[in-house]
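User: Quick one: structure for sequence A, then sequence B.

Assistant: Sequence A:
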Amino acid sequence: MKNLSDISVVKEILAKHGFTFSKALGQNFIINQNICPEMADMAIPDDDYCALEIGPGIGVLTYQLARRAKKVVAIELDKRLLPVLDETLAEFDNVEIVNADVMKLDLAELIKEKFSGEKICVCANLPYYITSPIIMLLLESKLPVESLTVMVQKEAADRLCAEVGSRESGAVTVAVNYYARAEKLFNVSKGSFMPAPKVDSAVIKLSIREKPPVEITDEKKFFSMVKAAFAQRRKTALNSISAGMGLSKEKISSALEKAGLDLNVRAEKLTMQQLADLCEAIEE
């Protein structure tokens, strides 16, 4: 295999295929040779697992996944990278590239078709501009995957892995925590990429829960309330939820009291259980 962590090798391959980076697609390829082996090791428990990758780029992470997994299916939006991947992954017969937009794919159907009955994990270096939508798509789809090991912007990692009820938490923290246990694995400096982004990254792992940590009667209403609660962080939960859900302050005040919460509490101070209690009280 050519050393895909060597800048001169990467430039040579890309030039050969007439490839230029797309800012719109958030393309930053990993050139730190230590990152992908570590990511793959942490993502794949043993060689009985299959891996789903999103945005393989030139195949640096894909290569490491293919060495460890039973099968790898990588979803790549940019068709200009297909001949590049054909070259960089030529030695593997357990890799399949799907040229598609992950946000428009029927992932449940794809998994059923490509991995029927297999143990699956997701591993990816996600584009910054679409990190949260991709993660939430994967979680909300309730796919038969055990975990998501993904590289994201460091600031996003801090929020995704924050404790619900802490200052760093937000609506996405609550959503992620509802579906999975989140942990930050390691930080990645901006110099580890080509071209180098303006911010550092981090690798996180989301281990899918067998069941949510709280009981909710109506998930849709719960997430609607959470989104409203965090929409105006400087305001109290009472004001934010009232405005965001179009409900009277009297109704929200009554619900806060029923849930045993302070009328002046802010959303970021509420634990997962308190948010669940508040939602149930609003619904009563």
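Sequence B:
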Amino acid sequence: MTHNGGIYGDGLVFQLRHEHGEWGMTVLHNFDFDFAQDGVGPNNQMIFDSAGNLYGTTTFGGANNSGTVYELTPEADGSWTEQILWNFNQGSGSEVQCCLVFDAAGDLYGTAFAGGQYNQGTVFELIPQAGGA
């Protein structure tokens, strides 16, 4: 991923493939804050689940401009669909700058650099709910 750049300047997620002795790049998602309050500035690390979906965080953007947790799902035609799983706010944390991890139950954990009760950051857990929420 890149923290900046892409066609909207808000970062992108890409895939590199080595085929026939050469490297090729495919853009999986261009972040665009102006479109449905997408995240801005994807960061550090993404992780896969067992179904091949990618999960990551953005430093800014989202509904509250405090960052997001997103999921990218591969489609049959080779495209990827983004879903915002969480929009951070000052209370739940902001400026997420690092890594997500899954536990055995499929819950996601991570840390936020700022926000929370004392504006010193948070440790968060996202628990999948029935119906995909």
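The beta strands are 12-19, 22-30, 39-42, 47-48, 54-61, 68-74, 80-87, 101-102, 108-112, 122-126. Residues 35-132 form one domain.

User: Thanks, that's what I needed.
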